Amino acid sequence: MTRVIKVGGRPQSDPALIKALAAAHRANAAQDGLVVVHGGGDEVSTLQRLYGVVAEFKGGRRVTNQADLAIIRMALSGSANKRLVSALVSEQVPAIGLSGEDAGLLVATPLDFARFGFVGVPFVVNQALLTHLLAGSYMPVISPVSRGADPRLGETLNVNGDDAAGAIAVALKATDLLFVSDVEGVMKDGAAISMLSPEDAQQLIDDGTAQGGMSAKLQAALKALEGGVERVRISDIAAIEQLDRGTVLTRVGSVCA
């Protein structure tokens, strides 16, 4: 089975992450491999502050102007990506760092230029490149910064890591898509929900129970399920090795529980 794991910015500071990813890579080496997509929102915001820029978010997505793109590329495709790759290689994992811009790995269209600026949603994934790397037992580690489909609207677009991971999971027909966050799962009334149907997830978005980054994760999960991914999970680092941990979403799910 092919697994796609998206790692948020905060879990990247936990030393347990790299060992968990290394163990997952070894477990999947004889199968169809593992792809890691990463974010790094806090790192981007820190770099923006150094440049005197105030970060702005709408619906869990970062509003992005042309100047912000250079900062985002430095933080995600540069610092965060290479730090993860280096740490994984130190654990004897043949990790290879890429961005969505490399070889047109991810091509995106603007989400809503008037509202978000240079923010995109992926609609083309270079599946052949990923399949080639996985066949060679490499672990692709991917920054979601992507190529724009129409240069007149920007050659580069800032793509949410959850959206990128979902699109990659669909392209690879992944059996498991895991969004690694800093919480055990989707929370309701102080407890993690064990399972969600698509209808349940949409309700949590609509009634405001899931907000910001969690809302964006659920939206990406729903799109991945629609694209054919068998199941999506939202959880913490422990869920990388514990395959039944976290909030599980399937096309035929249970009600909130």
Question: How would you sum up this structure, described in words?
Answer:
- 37% of the residues lie in helices and 26% in strands.
- Strands 1, 2, 5, 6, 7, 8, 9, 10, 13, 14 and 15 form an eleven-stranded mixed beta sheet that branches.
- With 257 residues, the protein is α/β, with parallel strands linked by helices.
- The longest helix is centred in the N-terminal third of the chain and has 25 residues, at 66-90.
- Mean pLDDT is 91; it is low at 253-257.
- It has a single domain, classed as 3-Layer(aba) Sandwich (Carbamate kinase).
- The chain has helices at residues 16-28, 41-50, 66-90, 113-116, 127-135, 161-171, 198-206, 212-226; strands at 3-7, 34-38, 57-58, 61-62, 95-100, 106-110, 119-125, 139-148, 156-159, 176-180, 187-188, 191-192, 195-196, 231-235, 247-250.
- The chain is built from eight helices and 15 strands.
- 49% of the residues are buried.
- α2 (41-50) packs across α3 (66-90), α6 packs parallel to α8 and α7 packs antiparallel against α8.
